[in-house]
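Quick illustration, no need to memorize.
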Amino acid sequence: MLRIADTRTGRLVEIPSAHRHLLRICVHLPVIDTGIGAVHLRAPLVGDVLARTAELQGLQSVTVLATPDLPPEPARTLERAMAVLGIHPPATVDVHHLTETVCAAADVHVLAYGTSVQDAVGGVRIDVGQVSPAPPDGGVPGRSHLLASDLPDAFAPEGTDPLAVRMLLLGHAHSTPVTVTSAALDEARRMLRHWRQQVADWAQEPSRPIPADVLRQAHAALADDLGVPAVLDMLVSVAKRADVPAGAKFETFAFLDRVLGLDLARQVGHQHPATP
């Protein structure tokens, strides 16, 4: 059972309804007049994780991205930005005419910060928290929240793996505001590199099944309002557990990466430096 907290009521709602096996997701973006930014990408990321979680549970899903009527260049920038963050492309991209689109029948509406929809629209509503850059020393907000054609360099330090941005955002509950700082991105990048190296090491050992308690906890966390931060914490714990064989650790990380989308097996089969 997959349950999501409806922003309007605060109550957990089972999705999709028990008699269906198709989850319909509509991701809504606000008017984009200052460039594509992280605030516009977090909602598609939440929709992506929701679809991945549903599919992990054997459900089919379809995602529609409802945007303002974007000019060609911002539309291409948004498409590129979603691609570098590992967000699966939506089945449909449409403008804000909810009563005339498949969004009107969506099971879940994922709203980017600053987006408004009609109150009468049915389905579960998820309001995604704001994403803000840390202001520079002068206290004036910078432009690091904007994404240009050279994404991700426009809002991440040079050399930062864009999937580190994904990892940073996944480390917070979807309704919680996030401040993107250089320190936070550096930590996400460090952890991502460390995990990829560990996964490559574990892959050299015989495969072992995922521990039943780990699998049970992971499914429970994801099924309860997309508890991805809890899954990340659990992986930190699994990596340290002496009672879990290396092959089981590999299978655990590879399995949950189907939801996380962090390309954790990137280094498997390649030479990589030993852990100091």
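The chain is about 35% helix and 15% strand.
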